[in-house]
Design a protein that fits this description.
There is one protein chain. This protein is of the alpha/beta class. It folds into three domains: 4-105, Rossmann fold (3-Layer(aba) Sandwich), CATH 3.40.50; 132-210, Helix Hairpins; 218-365, Heat Shock Protein 90. The radius of gyration is 35 Å and the shape is elongated. It has helices at 12-22, 34-43, 60-70, 85-91, 107-174, 180-210, 223-226, 234-242, 260-277, 309-315, 335-344, and strands at residues 4-8, 27-31, 48-52, 75-80, 97-102, 218-222, 246-251, 255-259, 283-290, 296-303, 351-355, 358-365. 50% of the residues lie in helices and 19% in strands. The protein has a five-stranded parallel sheet, with helices on both faces. A five-stranded mixed sheet has the order 7-9-10-12-11, covered by helices on one side. Strands 6-8 form a two-stranded antiparallel sheet.
């Protein structure tokens, strides 16, 4: 569809000349009356407005200034004689004039000016469309954040409360006299309830971090107190022992700025994951070292099955299990996602690489004030 151009000049010969010049490429509207031009603007979508400066009723600058109300995005070009230049320059901002062309105009120069004006209009329209799309995306994000908050309220009040009751009554039943079948069934009920509790807690932790609702207590902490074997939970050590996987630590001490509790949580989750998927009889190496830029990098490396780039990307998303999908999993598939979300609150992120049988996952922290 052709762009429309409005040509306004009180001299009919000039209007006809402009029409002949542009009619092949554009739809040309023309008039010798500034007031009629305003009526045409009310009825038509116009890309470029070309107006002479010296006209009865309204000057070109006045007409172009009035056109802003109906066509704020149109490109405005003023035709003027040499003697009008001083007065035009002082009024050019009022009419939001893209450029002025002196009479007599050069047809090639004027054609190029119109082509560039149309191109600028298209860029402006594209920018408006992109801004509209961004506003829609922002609205969707706000809606999503609200949905996440509502999800957290639902889980907290509607799931955790009955689950707590189930576990409490299971503990009370365990204190009573049960036969072997009853004891076995109660054990399975409690095991299932504990697994459900883990999934609920992990989901809440992930959503809280993703929506920046996790409250951090940032302070300067020594890395040797964060990333050492004594900081590991017993379940991590048990997984490593059960799979005959060793744990080796090389931690350079440095002060980093973080939430100590949150960072210990990230460290335990990553180490547990590394021990769980390491080849039996190998070691998990935990290395912490300072970088030249003052940051501190922790790397956890194990020997296990190679992972391609697509799988790495998937593993960083929630509810992704690096296990046989036909088998029941004992995990929630959220460990790495939670770590990524918590690290994002520290302006950091997981770096995951797989080279052959060597898998590395790590992140960087900075000292206070950086």
């Amino acid at each position: 569809m052709k762009h429309s151009i409005l040509c306004v000049d009180d001299e009919a010969d000039n209007i006809d000349a402009l029409e002949r010049l542009f009619r092949r490429k554009y739809h040309v509207l023309k008039t010798t009356s500034p007031m009629e031009a305003l009526d045409l603007l009310k009825k038509n979508k116009v890309t470029v407005i070309i107006s002479d400066q010296r006209m009865p009723q309204l000057t070109g600058v006045e007409l172009l200034e009035k056109s802003i109300k109906t066509h704020p995005n149109a490109i405005r070009i003023l035709l003027t004689g040499y003697t009008d230049i001083d007065s035009v320059v002082s009024a050019i901002n009022a009419g939001q004039i893209y450029r002025y062309v002196t009479k007599p105009w050069d047809p090639v120069d004027l054609s190029n000016a119109i082509d560039k004006a149309v191109e600028r209009y298209e860029i402006g329209e594209e920018l408006v469309e992109k801004n509209r799309a961004l506003e829609e995306a922002l609205t969707e994000l706000k809606t999503l954040d609200q949905a996440k908050s509502q999800f957290m309220m639902l889980v907290n009040h509607e799931l955790k409360t009955p689950l707590t009751s189930m576990l409490s009554f299971a503990d009370l039943l365990a204190e009573t006299k049960l036969d072997s079948d009853q004891g076995r069934m109660l054990s399975r009920v409690k095991s299932a309830a504990l697994r459900l509790q883990e999934m609920i807690n992990d989901s809440l932790e992930y959503v809280s971090a993703e929506t920046a609702q996790t409250k951090l207590e940032m302070k300067s902490v020594a890395t040797r107190s964060l990333f050492e074997e004594d900081a590991l939970a017993e379940n991590v050590k048990k997984v490593a022992a059960d799979r005959n996987v060793g744990l080796r630590f090389t931690i350079e001490n440095q002060k980093v700025y973080c939430d100590e509790k949150v960072m210990r949580n990230v460290f335990r989750r990553l180490t547990h994951n590394a021990a769980k998927f390491a080849k039996s009889g190998t070691e998990v190496e935990v290395t912490g070292a300072s970088n030249n830029d003052g940051s501190y990098e922790l790397t956890i490396e194990n020997q296990g099955p190679a992972i391609d780039e697509k799988k790495i990307t998937a593993l960083l998303k929630p509810f992704t299990l690096n296990e046989n999908a036909l088998n029941h999993s004992v995990g929630t598939g959220m460990g790495l996602s939670i770590c990524q979300a918590l690290l994002k609150l520290h302006r950091s992120s997981l770096q995951f690489t797989s080279r052959g049988s060597t898998i590395q996952v790590g992140f960087r922290l900075t000292p206070k004030g950086k």
